[in-house]
């Protein structure tokens, strides 16, 4: 232990990510203000010495004593240079090791009390042996290193007779971490220092030897490949001179045999043989070798002439369709019609059906049922979000990673050329700079063109006319007209509550019970509770939400049985209303009910929504002293135009209807449709607005048991609208017994379920006068006087 006389005070310069060893020259770039001040202070001293010490965390800009290593190196400043940006370039030489006892001050630069630290031990046999071993490894390292500056430094090391100086100089040239360098600096004995330097040097030599071996092996492999290519070309030349077949064995021979045995069309066979001849001339290392091989594999796997036999027993087809789906008679009839045609004319082209309807009505699953009924393979291609035309037509083989399109891949998977291919979500096809996939569908779905469809990858005509394409869409608006013309549109409207009840009882509840690991005969859901779930917890056109709610009930029952082993007996479990309300939570929807009283100016209308029909009320109010027409309730442009047309018609026919025309001049008008947070649009509220306005101007209320729908014209005609089935079902749910419809929509009543048809009276109207006569409460002479109807007016047709 040094006494007090060995203590000195030195300026301190912390350095990052490196260590200065005694006897080693090292350049240091200094930019921190404290370090610059320390260098300047040391340069003004007589011996120009300072302490170079490494800091533990390199990201600290102002380290304290705890952030510095306790052992550093005393150094002499040999050279100082200043850059334009204020930094110092210094060249320092290590002198000896120093222990940092205590920092005396922090500003304007670090200065601390230090004492020298010498290496213990004397030169002995072990030290001499390690010295010679380090010299030998240094010579080996010189042979492996290819950098000229490092090589010269290593050559000079072998002439250093001092083992400690040699060790420190070698350590400064190795790729060591900061912790490893600091450990060498802190070595307590000469033997420890030499031993650690020898281990680090040996590891560096081993790494360089391995690196050179890897580089040599890679170069040898490249040379071997080139040599094999030359020898293979020479072999081919010798075989051609001898007249021998150059490649009757291996993969080429196998592909040749498969082409010979495959039942390919003649034009396809010629192209396959031409590609095979190209493949035989290419070495396996050539880039096109695998591309041609993959192409030939695809050609051989495609079902050029292989078809599956259709099940043409119409009775069985009807049975399969009825087993899988309830209702949708039109779709089932269309499938049976096609089979009847195939039975009489096997060469008939398959139809292209487009199933259009809201989500959850069973469009996708219907395609699977059709395939099962026909006895054909089923393949589904999702078009939702497809933006690249190559997804359908494939990529040309000139591109890296080229693949055939999804249609050809579907045929490859199916293994027959007449599967049922479902193109799902055709209305959600995108379009961008990569092309328009909808345009590619024009050829795929056109019976006059798809018998010679050419995929970009395959580049051979393939007959798609035997495929039965079924497309699905939620709406027809995004589909281009040319594409729509190629498809036969079949609409799948929303289900009534009775239809949902049957679907849930036959399909959804048994499936969910089975998925939950329960036995159907041991879990009972009464019809009343099933109706409650349909009416109070779902409101949709399809049955997807209904299936989710039934699945929730099944999981709750499974949890109840799993937690209570006593419940696992073979006794049946009856679900109660209280359990349904507890498991499914608060009822999400309240049943639609008609208003008990309708004041003058309020009429009941019917609307279509993506989740089914709905009942809405049009409310009107006269505003004395105003002349404006105010419309509220988030009404769209079409609905606003219907309101203006209704007001204009009543104003222009006020005299004939017995209305006081001065009321139009003296009063403004406010029309409001409740549920203001929901946007509304469409022309079907025209007759409702006209009726509400007539009621407001005459002061006669509209019948509360009557709802209506239809578009109006400025001349008083009632024009047809869509969604009749959904609207009638909504009126029936609300307890409305009279529905006014346009005369032109009489044909749509055949879609209404029989039980609804019996409970609702339908009134068909051709003009607004017919609507007013059927909707206004007063009858007889008073109604004729206030509505302007003659006593001998034509009788409204009632169904």
Automatic annotation (TrEMBL):
UniProt xrefs under PROSITE patterns? LON_N, LON_PROTEOLYTIC, LON_SER
User: Per the entry, what induces it?
Assistant: By heat shock.
Catalytic residues? 684, 727
In terms of domain of life, where is this protein from? Bacteria
The Lon proteolytic domain, residue ranges: 597-778
Q: List the residue ranges forming a coiled coil, or say none.
A: 543-586
Instruction: Answer yes or no on keyword Oxidoreductase.
Output: no
The family database entries (Pfam families) matched by this protein are listed as: AAA, Lon_C, Lon_lid, LON_substr_bdg
Q: Which residues form the Lon N-terminal domain?
A: 10-205
Keywords from the UniProt entry: ATP-binding, Coiled coil, Cytoplasm, Hydrolase, Nucleotide-binding, Protease, Serine protease, Stress response
What is this enzyme's EC? 3.4.21.53
Q: What does this protein do?
A: ATP-dependent serine protease that mediates the selective degradation of mutant and abnormal proteins as well as certain short-lived regulatory proteins. Required for cellular homeostasis and for survival from DNA damage and developmental changes induced by stress. Degrades polypeptides processively to yield small peptide fragments that are 5 to 10 amino acids long. Binds to DNA in a double-stranded, site-specific manner.
Q: What is this protein called?
A: Lon protease
> What organism is recorded for this protein?
Nitrospira tepida
Q: What is the lineage of its organism?
A: Bacteria, Pseudomonadati, Nitrospirota, Nitrospiria, Nitrospirales
Q: Which gene encodes it?
A: lon
């Amino acid at each position: 232990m040094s006494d007090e006389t060995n203590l000195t005070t030195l300026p301190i310069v912390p350095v990052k990510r490196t260590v200065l060893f005694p006897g080693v020259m090292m350049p240091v770039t200094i930019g921190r203000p404290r370090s610059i001040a320390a260098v300047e202070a040391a340069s003004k001293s007589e011996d120009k010495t300072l302490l170079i010490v490494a800091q533990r965390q390199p990201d600290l800009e102002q380290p304290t004593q705890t952030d510095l290593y306790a052992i550093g190196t005393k150094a002499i400043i040999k050279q100082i240079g200043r850059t334009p940006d204020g930094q110092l370039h210094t060249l320092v030489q290590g002198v000896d090791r120093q222990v940092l006892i205590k920092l005396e001050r922090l500003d304007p630069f670090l200065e601390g009390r230090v004492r020298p630290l010498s290496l213990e031990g004397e030169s002995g046999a072990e030290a001499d042996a390690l010295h010679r071993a380090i010299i030998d490894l240094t010579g080996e390292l010189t042979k492996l290193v290819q950098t000229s500056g490092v090589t010269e430094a290593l050559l000079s090391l072998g002439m250093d007779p001092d083992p400690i100086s040699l060790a420190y100089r070698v350590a400064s040239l190795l790729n060591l971490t900061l912790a490893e360098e600091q450990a060498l600096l802190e070595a307590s004995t000469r033997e420890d220092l030499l031993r650690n330097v020898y281990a680090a040097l040996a590891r560096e030599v081993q790494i360089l030897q391995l690196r050179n071996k890897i580089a040599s092996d890679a170069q040898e492999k490249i040379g071997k490949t080139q040599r094999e290519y030359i020898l293979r070309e020479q072999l081919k030349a010798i075989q051609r001179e001898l007249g021998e077949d150059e490649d009757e064995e291996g993969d080429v021979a196998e592909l040749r045999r498969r082409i010979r045995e495959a039942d390919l069309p003649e034009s396809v066979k010629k192209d396959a043989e031409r590609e095979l001849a190209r493949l035989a001339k290419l070495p396996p290392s050539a880039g096109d070798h695998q591309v041609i091989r993959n192409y030939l594999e695809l050609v051989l796997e495609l079902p050029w002439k292989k078809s599956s036999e259709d099940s043409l027993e119409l009775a069985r087809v009807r049975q399969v369709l009825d087993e899988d789906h309830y209702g949708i008679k039109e779709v089932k009839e269309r499938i049976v019609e096609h089979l009847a045609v195939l039975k009489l004319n096997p060469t008939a082209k398959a139809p292209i059906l487009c199933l259009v309807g809201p989500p959850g009505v069973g469009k996708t699953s219907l395609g699977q049922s059709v395939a099962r009924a026909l006895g054909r393979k089923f393949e589904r291609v999702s078009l939702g979000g497809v933006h690249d035309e190559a997804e359908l037509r494939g990529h040309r083989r000139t591109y890296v990673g080229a693949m055939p399109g999804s249609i050809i891949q579907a045929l490859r998977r199916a293994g027959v050329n007449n599967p049922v291919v479902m193109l799902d979500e055709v209305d959600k096809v995108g379009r961008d700079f990569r092309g328009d996939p909808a345009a590619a569908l024009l050829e795929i779905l056109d019976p006059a063109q798809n018998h010679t469809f050419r995929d970009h990858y395959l580049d051979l005509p393939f007959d798609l006319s035997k495929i039965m394409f079924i497309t699905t869409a939620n709406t027809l608006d995004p589909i281009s007209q040319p594409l729509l013309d190629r498809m036969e549109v079949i609409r799948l409207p929303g289900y009534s509550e009775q239809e949902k009840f049957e679907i849930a009882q036959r399909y959804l509840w048994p499936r969910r019970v089975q998925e939950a690991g329960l036995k159907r005969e041991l879990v009972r859901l009464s019809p009343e509770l099933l109706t409650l779930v349909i009416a109070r917890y779902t409101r949709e056109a399809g049955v997807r939400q209904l299936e989710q709610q039934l699945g929730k009930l099944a999981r709750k029952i499974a949890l109840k049985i799993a937690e209570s082993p006593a419940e696992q007996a073979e006794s049946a479990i009856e679900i109660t209303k209280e359990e349904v309300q507890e498991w499914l939570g608060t009822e999400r929807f309240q049943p639609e009910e008609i208003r008990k009283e309708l004041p003058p100016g309020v009429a009941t209308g019917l609307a279509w929504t993506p989740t089914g029909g709905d009942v809405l009320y049009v409310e009107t109010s006269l505003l004395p002293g105003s002349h404006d027409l105010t419309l509220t309730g988030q009404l769209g442009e079409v609905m606003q135009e219907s309101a203006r047309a209704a007001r204009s018609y009543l104003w222009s026919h006020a005299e004939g209807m017995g209305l006081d025309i001065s009321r139009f001049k003296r009063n403004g008008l406010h029309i409001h449709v409740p549920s203001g947070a929901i946007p509304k649009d469409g022309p079907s509220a025209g007759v409702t607005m006209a009726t509400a306005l007539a009621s407001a101007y005459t002061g006669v209320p509209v019948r509360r048991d009557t709802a209506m729908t239809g578009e109006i014209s400025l001349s008083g005609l009632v024009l047809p609208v869509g969604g009749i089935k959904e609207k009638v079902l909504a009126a029936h749910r609300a307890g409305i017994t009279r529905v006014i419809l346009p005369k032109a929509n009489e044909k749509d009543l055949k879609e209404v379920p029989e039980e609804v048809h019996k409970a609702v009276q339908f009134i068909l109207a051709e003009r607004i006068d017919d609507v007013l006569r059927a909707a206004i409460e007063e009858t007889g002479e008073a109604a004729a006087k206030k509505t302007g109807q003659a006593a001998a007016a034509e009788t409204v047709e009632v169904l």
